[in-house]
């Protein structure tokens, strides 16, 4: 058995809560590793938390001023200068574009060059093993928290599909703030061979009530989507579900977007306050759709889908009203101008990095780190499908 296959087998057969222990043992035996550490990005994407703090050499590692953080941000291995015959390599742990954390391995410096390609693959295999193991253990979700989550935040994070994902046609990234106390905002996405569906949600209210409302709305939309129902009817059925529960006293603002992967054609239902801005080249513009009623405001509302097109190279940024409507200490709202500056300033970052950078800029405008309302940013980079037909002119 070759050593890479031995690692795969060790991770596949390990108990869900013992993946790191199994990985340490096989890397020591097969790669002569001196130490192995797994760091997970926290919910706020500010630090990397050690999975095993009792054996960690450092404790939480800042994302923006550390070697492991460089590997996480660049999504490339970072090799420290060898010392005392040992080299330390930091490897991003990512699953289909979803950035989980960093695997740090210390091994003899003379082995690094030959081992690095396999270590990169091992980090990816570890990520897949963690995603599967999370069905049966809380070890990994517990390790991600540098603070305690509120109950509403716990419910919201459990609804999410991930924080980022990528395919040949697109890359997605998203972030919620306050990460440890979010209550009403949410996002959801799902792709099949032909389409990508994206929901940007802003539930009214606060605390548990807002979280329950959003949970009902998201699951109603998923139920309709999984039944193969068109986007406008997804909105109508979710509207009925929310109205049946709340009778118009609470409602859900949602922007529903469906992308046709082969052409870049979009169908959009604008049922509330989330907004979309498009970066094309160096030009940023807000894209306005026909405003329709939020889900659950009235009984049996009909919804109409609009068409729009994206071109390869376009970046779409979606924000909730907790971003575009937030006020500075002097009363000035963040608004479209500030959002345009933030999107322009972050144009060289990846889609996964943009939401956190925009929210950091928003924090400076707000004059403090603690928002009074939920804030949600979703970034989508559109690459298009190779050989696809060009989108019609006009958008």
Automatic annotation (TrEMBL):
Pfam families assigned: SpoIIE
Record bears the keyword Hydrolase:
yes
Q: Check the record and name the Gene3D superfamilies matching this protein.
A: PPM-type phosphatase domain (3.60.40.10)
Q: GO terms for molecular function, please? A: phosphatase activity
Show where the PPM-type phosphatase domain sits: 169-382
Q: What is this protein called?
A: Phosphatase
Q: Which organism encodes this protein?
A: Streptomyces avermitilis
SMART domains according to UniProt: PP2C_SIG (SM00331)
Q: Which InterPro entries match?
A: Bact_Sigma-Reg (IPR052016), PPM-type-like_dom_sf (IPR036457), PPM-type_phosphatase-like_dom (IPR001932)
Q: Which UniProt keywords apply?
A: Hydrolase
Endpoints of the signal sequence:
none
Taxonomy of origin reads:
Bacteria, Bacillati, Actinomycetota, Actinomycetes, Kitasatosporales
Under PANTHER family, the record lists: STAGE II SPORULATION PROTEIN E (PTHR43156:SF2), STAGE II SPORULATION PROTEIN E-RELATED (PTHR43156)
- Does the record bear Cell wall biogenesis/degradation in its keywords? no
């Amino acid at each position: 058995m070759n050593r890479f296959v031995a690692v795969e087998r060790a991770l596949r057969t390990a108990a869900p809560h013992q993946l790191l222990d199994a990985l340490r043992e096989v890397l020591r035996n097969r790669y002569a590793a001196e130490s192995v550490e797994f760091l997970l990005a926290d919910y706020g994407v500010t630090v990397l938390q050690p999975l095993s703090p009792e054996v960690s050499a450092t404790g939480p590692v800042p994302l923006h001023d550390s070697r492991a953080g460089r590997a996480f941000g660049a999504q490339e291995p970072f090799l420290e200068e060898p010392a005392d015959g040992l080299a330390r390599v930091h490897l991003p742990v990512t699953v289909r574009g979803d950035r989980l954390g960093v695997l740090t391995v210390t091994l003899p410096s003379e082995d690094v060059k030959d081992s690095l390609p396999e270590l990169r693959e091992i980090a990816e295999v570890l990520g897949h093993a963690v995603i599967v193991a999370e069905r049966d253990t809380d070890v990994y979700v517990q390790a991600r928290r540098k603070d305690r989550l509120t109950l509403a935040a716990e419910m919201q994070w459990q609804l999410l599909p991930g924080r980022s994902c990528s395919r040949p046609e697109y890359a997605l990234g998203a972030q919620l703030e306050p990460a440890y106390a979010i209550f009403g905002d949410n996002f959801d996405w799902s792709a099949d061979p032909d389409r990508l569906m994206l929901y940007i949600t802003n539930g009214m209210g606060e605390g548990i009530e807002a979280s329950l409302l959003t949970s009902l709305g998201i699951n109603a939309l998923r139920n309709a989507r999984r039944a193969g129902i068109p986007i406008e009817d997804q909105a109508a059925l979710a509207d009925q579900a929310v109205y049946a529960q709340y009778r118009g006293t609470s409602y859900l603002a949602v922007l529903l977007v469906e992308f046709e992967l082969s052409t870049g054609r979009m169908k959009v239902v604008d049922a509330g306050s989330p907004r979309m801005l498009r970066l094309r080249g160096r030009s940023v513009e807000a894209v306005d759709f026909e405003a329709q009623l939020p889900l659950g405001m009235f009984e049996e509302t009909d919804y109409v889908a609009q068409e729009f097109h994206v071109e390869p190279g376009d970046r779409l940024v979606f924000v909730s009203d907790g971003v575009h409507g937030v006020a500075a200490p002097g009363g000035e709202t963040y608004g479209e101008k500030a959002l345009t500056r933030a999107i322009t300033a972050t144009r060289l970052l990846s889609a996964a990095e943009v939401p956190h950078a925009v929210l950091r800029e928003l924090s400076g405008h707000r004059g403090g780190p603690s928002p009074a309302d939920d804030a949600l940013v979703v970034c989508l980079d559109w690459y298009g499908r190779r050989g696809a037909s060009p989108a019609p002119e006009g958008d």
